[in-house]
Every structure is written in C-alpha cells, then in structure tokens.
Amino acid sequence: MRIFVALMLSLCALTARAQLTIEITQGVDNPTRIAVVPMGWSGSSPLPEDVSSIISANLERSGQFDSVPRTSMLSFPSKESDVFYRDWRVMGTEFLLVGNIEERGGRYYATYSLFDVLGQRKVISNGKVDGGAGQLRDVAHHISDKVYEKITGIRGAFSTQILYVEAFQGTNQPDNFRLMLADADGARPRMLLESNEPLLSPAWSPDGRQVAYVSFETSRPAIFLQSLATGQREQLTNFTGLNGAPAFSPDGNKLAMVLSKDGNPEIYTLDLRTRQFTRVTNHYAIDTEPSWTADGKGVVFTSNRGGKPQIYQVTLASGRVERLTFDGEYNARGRVSLDGNTLVMVHQRNGVFHIAAQDLTTGTLRILTETNLDESPTIAPNGAMLLYATRFGGKGILAAVSLDAGTKYRLPSKQGDVREPSWSPFFN
Amino acid sequence: MITKAMKQGLSFAFVMAFLVGCSSTDTKTDDADTGANGGGVTTGTADGGNLGSSDGSQDGMQDLETVIYFDFDQAVLQPDARTLLMAHAEQLRGSNASVRLEGHADERGSREYNMALGERRANAVRDFLVLQGVNRSNLEVISYGEERPLSLGSGESSWSKNRRVEIDY
C-alpha cells in the first residue's frame, strides 16, 4: 500500500523531470526524405502537443528517415487541394505528410494523407485517428506507425512502450530503485513501483497487460506479477536462493525463471493457470536467463557448464540441450527475435562487453554496438531495433541500435542510472 | 615510579603509533594491489579494524575482516580468503549466532548471471565454513549480484572491491 501512495505522489513530479531524451548518433546512409507539415489546427489555443514534431522525431529515430525542417517548407498545406508537388520536389522531398486536427467535445480528431512526391500520387488517403485530451502523443505515434509501414513495409513500433529500472545509488542516501514505464521514445515516464531494495528483470506479458519482475522488498529476491491497469501485485515465488529472470511464454500461459532452491541455479517453468512448477534444466553449473524461442517450444538460457558463460537452447518436450554460441568467452542473456532468425546477446570481446547478434541459420555473429558495459538487449516487436543498457558519461543509460547496426541512438536520463529496458509487444 | 610509568606510557604510545603507521601503510599497499589482482582486503570495514587489531584477540567477533574477494567470473576461494575464513570458523564453531553471507559481483556482464555468480561465491564461503565445523543452519546465503556495489565507478579498482562476499554477523 505504501508503494501505491508513493506512486501517486511521485507521478506528477516525475513526469516533468525524469524524461529520457533522444540523441541520434547514427542513421542509414540514404534516408528517405519526408516532409511532415505542421498539422492544420483552428483551435483558439495551441495544440497541447506538437503532433507533427513527434511524428518527425519518431521517423528520424528509426534512422531510415530524414525530415525536412519546417523553416525550409515553401507552404504548409493541410489538405490535398493545397499540395503542389513541385514545391516539394525541388527540395528533394520524397514523401509528404499533411493533416488536420479538430477538437470536438474534448476529443481530438486527426485526418492525414501521405503523398509520394516523385510518383505524384496519394499513398494514404484521409487516414483518421482520434483520441482524448491526454492522447495526442498516441495520435502522433499512430500516424507515425502508419506512415512508417506504408513506406518501409515494416510495421511501425512507435505506439509501443518500454519498461526500465531507474536506480539512485550513492554514499549519502539510501538506495532507491524504481520500475518505470514510458513510451518507446522515452516520453511520459510513469513509475510502477519504488523500493529501497533492488528491482530488476522486468518482463512484459505477451498481451501487454502485465509485467513480471524481481523485487528484493522481502529482503530476499522474489518474482512478482503486476497488472498495469490496476497496479495489483502478486508474489509468485518465495523460494530459498535465487528467484529470478522471469520470462513469459509466447502464449502467455507460462513463466520461465531461474530458481536455485535445489542447490544450483536451474531453469523452471511456472504454469500460470495450474501454478505447477516444472524443472527444465539439471546441471551443477549456473543455468539462468531463460528466454523463449519464438514458437514457444524451447527456451534459450545462459550456462557456464562449459566453463564460461555461453548460450544454450533446451527443447522443452525432449529436454535436449544444444549449445548455440561458440564465438568468444562470454555470451549471455540471449533473446531470440520474433521471426526466430536472430539471437541477440551480451558478448565480450577483448574485455569489452558489447551487444551482438547471431544469425541462427548460419551461426555468424556480428557485434552491433561500439559502447562498453552493454547489457540487457531487448528487441522491438517489429524486429527493426533493439534497446540495451550501457554507460555514458558515468551514468547508466539506455541506447538503441538497429538489428543491421545501421542506426543508433541514445536515451540519456536526466537523473539516476537507467537500466534493464524491456520493449513491449504490440498492443493490438 | 612515576618516571617508570611515564616511560611505559611513552613506549606504549610509540608502539601504538608504530602499529597505526604500519596499518596505514598496509592500507595503501593493498589499495594499489587491488588494481592488479583484486586480492586486497582493506576497504569497507577498515574503520575500527586498525584499533581493534592492536587491542589483541580476546572476544573479537567484530575484529576480523568480513569481506572476501574474488576474481572475475570466479567463485573460487583464494588462499588469503581461506585463512580468514578459518578464523571466522573458529569464532562461529559452537556458536548459535546466525550469519548472513551476501554474495556480490562487479557490473560487467549480464545482471541475472551475476546474481547467480554472487550466489556461487556466497555458497563457496558457506561450504568452506561448514567444512570447518560451522553449523550450516546458522548460515544464510543471499546474492545481490551487481545491484549493491561497494564502490560505484567503472574500472578494475572498483570492480575488484565489488566482487565479494560480505559476512554479516
């Protein structure tokens, strides 16, 4: 209960201060040039959110777009009849997004169209989306998703969210840990839980309605389940030893985890309907960090059974274990992409910890990041980018890299150490 | 008589000063060493340790160093750790004091693996103490992984202090 009171009290203050900002560090060589014209708006006061800027920022963050600055625009059309293709062609614009927002009864109604400037044709005609007073950012993310998908053929993930842990640790104050939820661009951070004891390993349920995580609030590690809508929490485990690394199965019915109640860290699954625990691994070495394969039939995990941490896969039906990583002396915390083709992981090379991706068909491993002390990779539901935790300027921050390593950006926080991102599934 | 007492007092003070001097020298040396091999056993509980050790060895539960250090990705007890743990076992044998063994890791690598590694380290300390005759049911193991560093900061001088087990009486 205390936690919820703290949550309510801190919510407003946090929203203003703690936002993660975006610094794009690398984009693709030939980004698509798009003009996002300021949305037509006839209200008496300015729109509470600059919808067009949010859309531009989203598209630029993907690394695949370069947006035309407003100051370069020759006109600000908000409907098709005002669009003159030559105005946009002369400045190299490939796509043009125009739209209009109206407010009726406290609700915002957006209409938007996307034009292919070179082909001189409309590729999205009068798309519509509406939202309540606090949902203009959602409206912007929705339009971003549609534009991104129309141009790239890949579903946009701008409407998704991220979980992360914010930690305040220093000599002069007691430790403070916060489980945070924010938009995928770091905006609108909300605190889900606050504790003086460590919080770690947040994980999304596949329906996006619940999160599982590890909390030391009982003075020992325990796995908790929390509803995002109600804030209601349930303690799922209370075993002696490790209770960690929760991971939902793709169908949401099971939770894989690590428990050391029998003496060694072993992978278990918990059936969330029957509450039955099933032991998956059986080895005297460390087995931890389970993550489900895309088809839900197997679990990849970290084990030092070969002497050093490497990533293995166990087939649940047979119990057969297979080693997946061979390149390097430290590969840990694997996550398999939704298409099942790529394994991302923490990979040590020359004493430096990077995020690497391994093609599961060819076995080829590629280092994606140039930073150090990288950890906790989490792949966006559309498979285009991954978020990870690293250190920058002496602080823990989140950073992102595309799975082809072509695009990179950072999300530095103004306060605390930010770590352990977990990218949500699609919400619909 | 007075002179003799004063002489004794002076020589005691001299011995104390000498001991304190030695201690601080040791501290510096150990700090420098930690950069190389992580074998240093100084920080964390150094306060009072110097004074206590010059007092002798009578009841001394608090006198022993209570932090055991480890190499990267290792849970093997080093020789100096074994020596220290023998002394702890001496105190704990036949005692009903419950002791918490807190395992920790440095920040490198993944967090849940480090959680397991911290537990491995605390288990290694527990198993050694049990072999030395300490009642296992009085020893509680908990791992904090890399979540509670002793030294904030990135570099071997911090990491070597963080790869540890704390014996919490």
Could you explain how this protein is built, in words?
The complex is a heterodimer of chains A (428) and B (169). With 428 residues, chain A is mostly beta strands. In chain A, helix 2 packs across helix 4 (136-152). Chain A has helices spanning 2-17, 51-61, 85-89, 136-152, and strands at 23-26, 32-36, 40-41, 65-67, 95-104, 107-116, 121-131, 161-168, 176-183, 190-195, 199-204, 210-215, 222-227, 233-235, 243-248, 254-259, 266-271, 277-279, 287-292, 298-303, 310-315, 321-323, 331-336, 342-349, 352-359, 365-367, 375-379, 385-392, 395-402, 408-411, 417-423. The longest helix of chain A is centred in the middle third of the chain and has 17 residues, at 136-152. Chain A has two domains: 22-152, Rossmann fold, CATH 3.40.50; 161-423, Neuraminidase (6 Propeller), CATH 2.120.10. The model of chain A is unreliable at 1-16 (pLDDT under 50). In chain A, the strands form seven sheets. In chain A, strands 2, 3, 4, 5, 6 and 7 form a six-stranded mixed beta sheet that branches. Chain A has a five-stranded antiparallel beta sheet with strand order 1-30-29-28-27, with no helix packed on it. A four-stranded antiparallel beta sheet of chain A has the order 10-9-8-31. By secondary structure, chain B is of the alpha+beta class. Chain B has a single domain (2-168), classed as 2-Layer Sandwich (60s Ribosomal Protein L30, Chain: A). Chain B has five helices and four strands, in the order ααβαβαβαβ. Chain B has helices at 2-37, 49-55, 79-92, 111-131, 156-162, and strands spanning 67-69, 99-104, 139-145, 164-168. A four-stranded mixed beta sheet of chain B has the order 1-4-2-3. In chain B, helix 1 (2-37) crosses helix 5 and helix 3 (79-92) crosses helix 4. The radius of gyration of chain B is 18 Å and the shape is elongated. Chain A binds chain B through residues 169-170, 175, 198, 200-201, 216, 219-221, 241-242, 244-245, 258, 260, 265, 286, 288-289, 302, 304, 308-309, 330, 332-333, 346, 348, 353, 373, 375-376, 391, 394, 419-420, and chain B through 73, 107-113, 115-117, 119-120, 141-145, 147-149, 152, 154.
